[in-house]
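Sorry to interrupt, but I need a hand with the structure work. I would like you to pick a protein and set down its sequence and fold. Please put the record directly below this note.
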Amino acid sequence: MAKAVVLFSGGLDSTTVLAMAHRDGEDLYALTFDYGQRHRREIASARKLAALYGVVEHKILRIDLDQIGGSSLTADVPLPESRDLDTISADIPSTYVPFRNSILLSLATAYAEVVGADLILAGMNSLDYSGYPDCRPEYLDAFNRLIRLGTKACVQDGRQIEVRAPLLYWDKARIVQEGMRLGVPYELTWSCYREENQACGHCDSCALRLRAFREANLVDPIPYLLDSKRLAY
């Protein structure tokens, strides 16, 4: 049975990817990062979901990106809220964490080398996204070239470690529809950038998620603050 490392935040996209890999019969190694993000509630979601899907191993790695800062997710910087979704990806927002995906994928590659996995799965999406440069197809291609050049597994051992993003060209509504078809318990996932008991409904992540469920003709099962679901996203 093939082994796969899944970059697993406990959010909508990565949980859908985990469910797809589970359906395909992969031996799953989930990798979650506590990088100093303000929305650490997603880590609790990741724990519950990794246990539910019976992963072989679930590692939660602490890396102190909050010591670097430079992002509204890791520093005392206001979050962007109530933005027009049609122009949300026009500029790179303050929620961009400097070089985050490269840092996380590098650690995932090291983990894959150690556990013998030739597949790394990530929930990157290039259609409904917040303008992050490290969610684009050309970025993913470049990182895969780096793996082929910079790992013992590929250079000496003849392995072909590859990062794949199954949702790269999917819109959010299609992601939700596929997840529902697979029985993903979206009520256990967390997407909001705020660390609260209820999702705010105003940050970019909430806005994209709410629109996804609306366009899929479904109701998002997580709790939102009063009236946030009625916002015209």
Remarks:
- The chain has one domain: 3-184.
- The beta strands are 3-7, 27-34, 57-62, 119-121, 162-164.
- Residues 3-184 form a domain with the Rossmann fold fold (CATH 3.40.50.620).
